[in-house]
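sry for the spam today, last one i promise. struct tokens for design, 271 residues
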């Protein structure tokens, strides 16, 4: 009998025992925590040139709006609500693009294979993207609110009539809630379409087209799908007796695309 025939089973048994010992000595593999995923998505949003330019552009619009407000002072005390409204107009318009870019980046930058290999549970990754987009938009809105506070005080000093911060808490609550819903809506469109340019186009055109054509075609019934009107009522903290219409518009334009987007992302082919 050949030596190799005698030693092969012995070697195989030894190697098998060695592999088993190594396997048992290694710590168990742990999935990435959700907080870790959110942190990664936040870094991906701000570590790109387009992401940084977008955030800087949003803040530049806020500064420009506040500057215009300070050069066109009204009589009487300068109200924080007015300054916040002026500063957040451009912010609310462009912040949803952060959500769109967060959801489409994996597919447009061809990093989906790497991301979903390291984190194969796609729904968790997508939810982390939603969360990071909301968190980043909240930070940007906070900076905008601080700028509005400073501009209110400066405006009161320049006019000589002083400043008023009545309703500050309600104004901020309405702004944060509206911003979060708007960003989730943008992220949902990005998750459904997965192409940045197309998703941004559809996000801006579709609800705007309904806001313009809906009243002409359906009169007051158009309010049931008017998401801009719903956002406005939420921002004003006054639903004007239109709670069902507001909830329906939010469900159609925010909740439904989110569900469809998560479903589509979990089944989209990774190349």
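last one done:
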């Amino acid at each position: 009998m050949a030596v190799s025939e005698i030693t092969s089973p012995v070697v195989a048994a030894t190697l098998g025992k060695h592999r088993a010992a190594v396997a048992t000595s290694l710590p168990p593999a742990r999935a990435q925590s959700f907080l870790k995923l959110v942190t990664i998505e936040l870094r991906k949003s701000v570590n790109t040139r387009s992401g940084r330019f977008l955030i800087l552009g949003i803040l530049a619009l806020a500064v420009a709006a506040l500057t215009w407000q300070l050069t066109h002072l009204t009589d009487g005390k300068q109200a924080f609500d007015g300054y916040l409204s002026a500063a957040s107009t451009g912010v609310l318009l462009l912040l949803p693009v952060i959500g769109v870019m967060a959801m489409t980046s994996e597919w447009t930058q061809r990093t989906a294979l790497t991301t979903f290999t390291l984190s194969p549970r796609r729904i968790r990754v997508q939810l982390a993207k939603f969360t990071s987009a909301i968190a980043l938009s909240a930070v940007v809105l906070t900076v905008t609110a601080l700028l509005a506070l400073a501009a209110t005080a400066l405006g009161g000093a320049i006019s000589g009539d002083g400043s008023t911060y009545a309703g500050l808490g309600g104004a901020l609550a309405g702004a944060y809630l509206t911003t979060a819903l708007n960003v989730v809506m943008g992220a949902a469109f990005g998750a459904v379409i997965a192409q940045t340019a197309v998703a941004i186009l559809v996000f801006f055109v579709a609800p705007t087209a309904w806001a313009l054509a809906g009243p002409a075609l359906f009169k007051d019934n158009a309010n049931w799908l008017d998401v801009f009107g719903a956002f406005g009522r939420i921002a004003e903290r006054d639903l004007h007796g239109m709670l069902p219409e507001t909830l329906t518009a939010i469900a159609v334009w925010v909740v439904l695309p989110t569900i469809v987007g998560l479903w589509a992302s979990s089944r989209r082919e990774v190349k």
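The chain is about 80% helix and 0% strand. ok im logging off now
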